[in-house]
Amino acid sequence: MFLRRHIVGCSRLAALLLAVLLLTAPAVVVAGRAEADIYVVLSNDTEEYRQIEKRIVEGLRDSRHYGKRLRTMLAASLDPSRPGHWPAADAEVVVAVGMRALKALLEGPPGFPIYAVFVPYASYHALLDESASGAGAPRRRHLSVLYLDQPPRRQLELAATIDRSFRRLGILLSEDSPIDVAALREAAADLGLTLRPVRVSERRDVVPALKRVQRRIDLLITVFDPAIISTQSLRQILYFSYNRRLPVIGYSRAMVRAGALAAVYSDAGQVGRQAAETLIEALDRSPIGLPPSAFPDYFSASCNEAVRAYFNLPADCNLEGLARGGEGR
Q1: 45-95, pLDDT tens digit by residue?
Q2: How many domains does one find in the chain?
Q3: How many other C-beta atoms can be found within 10 angstroms of the C-beta atom of residue 68?
Q4: Looking at the chain, which runs of residues are DSSP E strands?
Q5: Is residue 133 part of a domain?
Q6: Residues 119-130, mean pLDDT to the nearest whole number
């Protein structure tokens, strides 16, 4: 009887100690509608954006900045004229998740650093051009961007990994694309490849432009550029790919499912992981030190096996070597 009581007593004590430990464990403070140290502004309330938010919260919770007050807001609710509907002017940093959130923040009064993530490279540079002479121009803000896109060189490496017979590559670009073609050509030459830019002024010109170069390239690389890329133009590109037997390297997992040969991309979890790591490093400095804008370090690669077979490519869709390059910084 004594032994049973002793065991029960020990169990209750252990439960009490566990409860105390849980209560005192590091946790990011969710600020609700109160002012916060860090704000996360989501473009929309979608699973992808929420996953990025979750990874940021988890990363801060497990760091020396676990005591920071954090508040999440939606871009649609932002209004600098209404109390509680705009980040505090003395916020340490505001994280904009997606292009809509970034635009909304740049339209309001300055006063806090902005770290924008999941933002397309071409869309951001178009925003720079549009607002260079207007109020709230990004060039005059303490602003850093983690792009959604991959560095184009990574797509070149993907093409070389899939099949060494691809020597003449084309890349579909708008007339005003911010991509440095000269540097990309040098990168292609380092891989033993040649690169031909396929310039298009508007979406309806995509197919005619591809017809003009189809005999001079072995494979087409696509990058996300809203000036020429839409759901309809993507359908046209993939339809052309099948009919003219011109393989396409895409920029998302969805493109691979739709019929691209392969793609390299970063998902929301990978973007959130890098965003959390970058924020922790930035908060370690006083004042906060955001890094220069950058492409993702973490990425995945995938290949459509059915498309590979259609083009009679000899190798299997084995991209493990390339994908392993995206597991570390």
Answers
A1: 999 999 999 999 999 999 999 999 999 999 999 999 988 899 998 999 999
A2: 2
A3: 19
A4: 29-30, 38-42, 69-74, 93-97, 114-119, 143-147, 168-174, 194-200, 219-222, 248-250, 262-265, 300-303
A5: yes
A6: 89
Residues 305 and 174 in one domain: yes
Give 271's strand partners. none
| 205 and 313 assigned to the same domain | yes
For residue 1, is pLDDT > 60? no
The pLDDT value recorded for residue 109 is: 86
Same domain, 59 and 123: yes
Cα–Cα distance measured from residue 261 to residue 318, given in angstroms and rounded to the nearest whole number:
12
Give the mean pLDDT of the chain: 86
**Residue 284 in domain:** yes
Judge whether 211 lies within some domain.
Answer: yes
- β-pair partners for 264: 301
Quick one: 64 and 200 in the same domain? Answer: no
DSSP helix, strand, coil percent of the chain (3-state; round to 5): 45, 20, 40
CATH code assigned at 231: 3.40.50.2300
pLDDT attached to residue 323: 56
Supply the pTM of this predicted model.
0.84
Instruction: Give the residue from 107, 108, 111 showing the smallest Cα distance to 93.
Output: 111
What is each CA distance from 258 to 61, 220, 254, in whole angstroms?
Answer: 38, 15, 6
Confidence of residue 202 (pLDDT cuts 50, 70, 90): very high
Provide the domain limits for residue 116. 27-148+266-297
Residues 274 and 307 in one domain: no
Instruction: Give the CB-side neighbour count of residue 173, counting CA atoms within 13 A.
Output: 19
Residues 259 and 286 in one domain: no
**Cβ count within 10 A of residue 231:** 7
Q: What is the pLDDT of residue 140?
A: 52
Secondary structure letter of residue 2 according to DSSP? H
